[in-house]
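Deliverable D4.2, example record:
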Amino acid sequence: LLGVPELDVTGSAFFSISLALVGIFFAGITAITVQLSDYSRGSNLMAFSVLGASFAIRAVGDAIGSINPDGLGVTASWVSWLSPLGWANQVLPYYDNRIFPLVLLVIGFAVSCLVGYFLLNHRDIGSSIIQAKPGPPRAKKSLLRSGGLAKRLQTPSAAAWIVGAILMGGLMGSVIDSFRSTFEESDLLNEFLGASETGNFTQIMVASMFGILGVIFAGYVVSGLTKVQNEESYGRLEYLLSTPLGRLKWLFGHVKNILLGILLTLVSLGLFGAIGYYVAADNPEVSFGSVLAAGLSSLPAMILFMSIILCVYTLWGKSVKVMAWSFYAYCVLITSFAPIFKWPEWTTNLSPFSHTPLIPGTNLDYTPLFVMTGLAIIFFIAAAVFFRKRDIILK
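Output generated by the structure prediction step:
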């Protein structure tokens, strides 16, 4: 931020500190959830649920807030103060540079840590506060097949992301019309969105909003593929491969379920976004199918994103977690900030999501969609070859 002349140093410092403290706050939340669940899957699901609820509460607070006299901002309602993400927003960097919301985040982190340590001292070693129920004495027939086991492992994470897509799609769709009526005359926002090139502010806004959401929901891919790596590093894959089960059948059983989860997540995002838009809009300017297509527009990019991470996993195994989350963070960062700070073009080209055409929009070029799909197929084939040749890697 220091390299942007228009942004003062103090405001940049407050903005950066607020982002950091949000991460630190949710580290404190995770200190609680790891005491509640026996397994990382349950702990992560609870922590992500708190994060998702915080995001939704803050979004609602912003949506029902009041427009500033300059027409360039929104004063959030009291609802936003119920969310830690709302606290970070209330810092108002470059404008007020408030310290009080930062103090709230620090206090929230400290309280979370204290609660986490309290729970740690009140549970058994190797156990958790919420005891896991013993499983049935015999497995279901579906679990005796590789596909059934992969489905069992991948379904809870997919269900959580789909629910998040339903909520976020409906929320974003419902605020499109009010956002348009408020900011359509803003030259600054029109320039940022590039609406002047398309001639339709609502179309470009729908495309931009759902494009950003598509990148965010790529976190599901990372979550699903890390489960694949866990099966290997924890030794469970070794037992499975001692049976007639083949490597590729096991691997692509997981891939098939993750691909299905991607499709259902994006369909839910677009479908409920369209429903929310048509329920809230007085005079819809974008068709139902166009909003649905906007939700699905990130599908080729997300499949390519998955194939790249899968290829890294089949080459190096346990290093995939660091690479996957770093690549995901990079794609989110590029999508959020590259247009604002006008970073070099090559930095955006490294993200598959930067090649997704704006849907709905005019003069659409579908070539990038076919190119990304073709590259994904190549990476999938390469992953199959690599996985057949390398050794199983245990901790």
